[in-house]
Design brief:
Elements lengths: L5 H9 L11 H4 L3 E5 L8 H11 L5 E5 L5 E2 L2 E2 L13 E4 L6 H11 L3 E4 L10 H13 L3 E3 L5 E4 L4 E4 L7 E8 L2 H14 L3 E6 L8 H9 L6 E6 L5 H4 L8 E5 L5 H4 L4 H19 L2 E3 L2 H10 L10 E5 L2 H13 L8 H8 L13 E2 L6 H13 L5 E7 L6 H14 L6 E6 L2 H12 L4 E2 L2 H19 L12 H12 L7 H11 L6 E4 L2 H7 L6 E6 L12 E5 L2 H18 L7 E6 L4 E10 L3 E8 L3 H5 L2 E5 L4 H10 L16 H10 L9 E10 L2 E4 L2 E4 L1
Helix pairs in contact: 4-5, 11-17, 14-15, 15-16, 18-19, 23-24
The structure holds coenzyme A.
The site of coenzyme A (COA) has 27 residues, from helix 3 and helix 6.
Length: 704
């Protein structure tokens, strides 16, 4: 919808930066020729290591070392400059010191190179934004996409391209790993090799001056070599840009750096409760990405997400030990993973694979005598039976069993089954078990040394299934009514930084926020007239000069009739003029008293995502429980309903011990306040009182 003021158009622009034409990233991954600028014969240098990896990784396209002095590097003919290379170059990897990078970028433009990885440090990260901006300018003018600066490089398994200065032996797989930190990416390359986890791609982002997470996620959307994208993120330059990412495949984000920067700057409840990590959390939910809490969890999830999704909720546990079976059952309960519960049917199906003393309840206990044959048979049956949707295999190391043979039996039966259902394995034991786990992982079965990791990995399939089922909601910012914009503009013209209470109420009402009956009166006569049919009511003093109304005796609650109003009005005026003799009194606000569950609805500004809306349990609970949820503006009614579901005390809103809420009018409020997002800094509706009769904003503050 079109906005009617300059503020609104500024808001639109601010939330749509980076909207330049998408650049072609294919040369990063499928280059015909690769140049390493700053390649060196000195093995201590990064330029040597990268060239060595490009050659040693098995890349078969043209390889061009660029060095002003040497004729040959690592057995390849070297060129003094990029422009001297006779062949086609799609990817240039820059490893020369910072002062030379701009001139190399200019050479890239001359040579027609479209993809560049800038390894060099010494730009934005140390305050040298001038040179970084210049590089970006050259790139944009010449349609060059670049990674970095300040990166480890990139790797792409399907074309055997390893243009990093990390290890060379990375295993093939279907995970694309995007890392803001280069050093961590190197460390995790080593870790994936050790754990036998394959990678399709690895991209280091560094300063993200050009190519960012969104560009790469959207590229990998269309890449059949990638099943799942894993992002290590420290922060975002532009949250609203990232929120527009088109998510087609599972994206796991490991976001670190939880700061309270946003909270410090905020003046309202909403602001102080936000904190940028809460907003990231909300944005990730809104976007439909999976947030992991640790590297191990992120990689565990990534491995699991290459499995088929479970068709239903019936999981079966196969174990050789009772204890591990019980603890797995507990963890499944925690994650609300359903376990098939039909001992007779299970006995009928599994009796031939088990000794007489085995257990047919779920977990199926094939006992400590379960060898490769029994594991193979039991998993084959579980994988074949339609009533079983998911298989969890557990093993405790014993001296009479051989974990590697058991792993072989499991792999064989999974391969024979056609791999149509998800299966995870947890094996607990020593070195022999560790080797068996690596064998399973190498064969595409997500396998873990603890039950918790295995079930968390399995659970991610249910999480992703839920995200897939969630209907996408196209949300646009609705225009605010012109009268509301006028009220705000007038207050701004008067140099005020907030609206008066009755102004705030009127603005919200105009936007569609339900409010209790209210009236503003400047005299006793007006008050008596306005109050007709509104009792019981509250009366509050209104003055630009009075911030804390209660301190000056400016609040009266539960006024039952006209007589009480008359006496309390006179007394209040007297009290206030004594307590605050210089204050100019604008009048009084009369508000109908309502009862119900008190919630808080707010809107504040986040430095990365712009306007965000908050919902939570209100009144005295706001500070104590901090049980609130957030969404980034704009969002529609479906997402607004998720805001209510997200808080821990959400049960209360479903009718708890006689308490009733009207979710429809809460959703209406959450949607309505967004209309003024372009014009205000913060909104606090505290409380929004809700009951089966509806919801209404009893008290509201709007900060400009
Ligand atoms: N074109 C081609 N080659 C050039 C050149 C140019 N314009 N200017 C210099 N070179 C050559 C040098 O002669 C040298 O080769 P040599 O060993 O044969 O003499 C090579 O490029 C490298 O230059 P040098 O001056 O030796 O720099 P260096 O290797 O010590 O450092 C960087 C270069 C890029 C590695 C360094 O500046 C840097 O930024 N390091 C940090 C990288 C980093 O940590 N990135 C983030 C990862 S997480």
């Amino acid at each position: 919808m079109k906005m009617s003021s300059e503020d609104a158009s500024n808001y639109d622009q601010a939330s749509s930066t980076h909207q330049a034409k998408a650049k072609d990233l294919s040369g990063f991954f499928h280059p015909k020729g690769v140049a390493v600028v700053g390649a060196s014969n000195n093995s201590a240098k990064i330029g040597y290591q990268i060239l060595n990896n490009v050659i040693g990784g098995g890349y078969t396209g043209g390889i061009y070392p660029i060095n002003p002095k040497d004729e040959e590097i690592l057995g390849r003919k070297a060129y003094k400059r990029l422009v001297d290379v006779p062949g086609e170059i799609d990817l240039a990897v820059i490893t020369v010191p910072a002062p030379y990078v701009i001139s190399v970028m200019e050479d890239c433009a001359r040579k027609g190179v479209k993809n560049v990885a800038i390894i060099t440090s010494g730009f934005g990260e140390v305050g040298n934004t001038k040179d970084e901006d210049k590089i970006k300018q050259i790139a944009d003018e010449n349609d060059i996409a670049f990674l970095g600066p300040n990166i480890l490089g990139l790797l792409y398994g399907p074309t055997d391209l390893n243009a990093t200065f990390g290890p060379q032996e990375v295993l093939p797989g279907k995970i694309a790993f995007i890392s803001q930190s280069g050093a961590l990416a190197i460390a995790f390359m080593g870790w994936t090799i050790m754990e036998k986890i394959g990678l399709a791609a690895l991209c280091s982002l560094g300063n993200k001056a050009d190519v960012d997470e969104r560009a790469l996620i959207e590229y990998f959307n269309e890449d059949d070599n990638v099943d799942v994208v894993l992002v290590y993120m420290e922060g975002l330059k532009d949250g609203t840009h990232f929120l527009r990412t088109n998510i087609k495949k599972p994206v796991i984000i490991l976001k670190v750096g939880r700061t309270q920067r946003g909270a410090k700057a905020a003046a309202s409840h909403t602001g102080s409760l936000s904190g940028s990590d809460n907003i990231f959390e909300a944005a990730f939910k809104q976007l439909g990405v999976l947030r992991a809490q640790s590297f191990a969890e992120a990689f565990g999830w990534a491995r699991a997400l290459s499995l088929p999704l479970p068709k239903g909720d019936n999981a079966l546990i196969i174990t050789n030990g009772g204890g591990i079976g019980v603890s797995t059952t507990d963890v499944c309960e925690d994650y609300k993973i359903g376990l098939i519960d039909d001992p007779e049917w299970l006995q009928e199906k599994f009796s031939e694979t088990m000794p007489d003393f085995g257990s047919y309840k779920n977990p199926i206990d094939i006992t400590g005598q379960g060898h490769a044959k029994e594991y193979g048979q039991a998993t084959s049956i579980a994988l074949k039976e339609d009533r079983i949707d998911t298989v969890i295999v557990l093993y405790c190391e014993t001296s009479v069993t051989n974990p590697h043979e058991i792993a072989q039996g499991i792999v064989q039966s999974y391969k024979n089954s056609g791999q149509k259902k998800p299966m995870v394995v947890a094996m607990v034991g020593g070195q022999r078990t560790r080797d068996a786990l690596q064998f399973l992982n190498q064969n595409g079965i997500p396998s873990f040394s603890s039950v918790e990791e295995a079930i968390s990995a399995l659970n991610v399939l249910f999480m992703w299934k839920k995200i897939g089922r969630k209907e996408k909601e196209e949300a646009t910012l609705e225009a605010a009514p012109s009268r509301a914009i006028e009220i705000i503009a007038k207050a701004k013209d008067e140099g005020r930084d907030s609206l008066l209470e009755h102004e705030a109420r009127e603005v919200l009402e105009l936007c569609g926020v339900p409010t209790p009956r209210w009236a503003f009166a400047t005299t006793l006569e007006e008050a008596l007239e306005g109050a007709e049919g509104m009792y019981p009511l509250a009366m509050k003093i209104t003055s630009k000069d009075i911030i804390h109304k209660t301190d000056v005796g400016g609040v009266e609650l539960n006024i039952k009739d006209a007589e009480e109003l008359r006496s309390k009005y006179t007394k209040m005026m007297q009290r206030v003029s004594e307590a605050s003799p210089d204050a100019v009194i604008d009048g009084v606000n009369l508000i109908q008293m309502v009862s119900g569950i008190e919630c808080i609805v707010g809107m504040s500004q986040d430095p990365q995502f712009g306007s965000v809306v908050m919902f939570g349990l209100g009144g005295v609970f706001v500070e104590a429980l901090k049980d609130v949820s957030f969404r980034v503006v704009p969002f529609g009614p479906k997402e607004a309903a998720c805001l209510i579901q997200d808080i821990k005390t959400t049960k209360i809103f479903d009718g708890f011990r006689g308490m009733k809420a009207d979710k429809k009018t809460i959703v209406q409020t959450l949607c309505a306040i967004q209309k003024i997002a372009p014009y205000v800094k913060e909104v606090d509706i505290n409380p929004l009182v809700t009951s089966e009769r509806g919801s209404c904003a009893v008290d509201a503050r709007i900060i400009l």
